[in-house]
Amino acid sequence: MAGSDKRKPTFRRVLIKLSGEALMGSEDYGIDPDFVEYIGGEIRSLTAAGIEVGVVVGGGNIFRGAGLAAAGVDRVTADQMGMLATVINALAIQDSLERQGMFARVMSALKINQVCEDYIRRRAVRHLEKGRVVILAAGTGNPFFTTDSAASLRAIEINADLMIKATKVDGIYSADPKLVPDAVKFDTLGYQEVLEKKLGVMDATAIVLCQENRMPLRVVDMTCPGVFLDAAMGVSVGTLVTV
Fold first, then answer.
1. 18 and 166 Cβ atoms separated by less than 8 Å
2. Which of 127, 123, 115 is nearest to 84 (CA)?
3. How many domains in the chain?
4. Of 102, 108, 105, nearest to 134 (Cα)?
């Protein structure tokens, strides 16, 4: 289904949230070039269909600020180090997209002008309107906020029609399906249910942001080829979370 180019997109503009760990692919640490190339190809299928794409990426494959803070490092400093890790990942994704013939811009919430642009909302929207993939790095630019919260915030700011949470599980379950074999998969959920059931797909701040701004969220298995395009086409893949 994802291979059909004749379908009309249900969503004009989407924001994809990628975890840093996802970029490890089959590696134990860092960035797997083959998997980053695969993700680039999945994003290319969206742009080829005329869909505007924003990406927010985490940095857990390189560095986790919360982990270092737990070991005694100042939390603000640790989180700032984590933000820098997301910039590294964003540049890797940009390189992959450009090698596959797309135009991409990295925009950082921290000022790093020699390697990427500053995040300015209106400029980001303009890039999207021109068909460029915008990779939004450094979280919100503030400590104590996760990249999930940053993704929700950026999706709202750029007026995305859908946020796609890319995971390695095919949706939201009542429990971790790797640990609980009889865990139940949800096809649809309300944001309030996610909070009440403490399903943990994203942190509470991210969920509340989406809920208050009526931002639909679809949680999908990014290792399934064509799933991003299917989600943007309105196909019922993974789990859809709405108000």
1. yes
2. 115
3. 1
4. 105
Nearest to 1 by CA among 240, 227, 176: 227
Q: SS3 for 237?
A: coil
User: Residues 69-113: pLDDT tens digits?
Assistant: 788 889 999 999 999 999 999 999 999 999 999 999 999 999 999
Residue 217 lies in a domain: yes
**Segment 193-241, tens digit of pLDDT:** 999 999 989 999 999 999 999 999 999 999 999 999 999 999 999 999 9
In a domain, 5, yes or no: no
Which two three-digit tokens encode residue 128?
Answer: 């999207």
Q: How far apart are CA 14 and CA 165, in angstroms?
A: 11
Q: Name the residue type at position 221.
A: D
Q: Which pLDDT band, with edges at 50, 70 and 90, does 5 fall under?
A: low
Is residue 7 in a domain? no
Q: Is the pTM of this model over 0.85?
A: yes
**Cα 108 to chain center, whole Å?**
15
Quote the CA–CA distance of 150 and 154 in Å, as a whole number: 6
Whichever domain contains 130, its CATH number is 3.40.1160.10
Classify residue 1: in a domain, yes or no: no
Report the C-alpha gap between 235 and 187 in whole angstroms.
12
**Single-letter amino acid, residue 210:** C
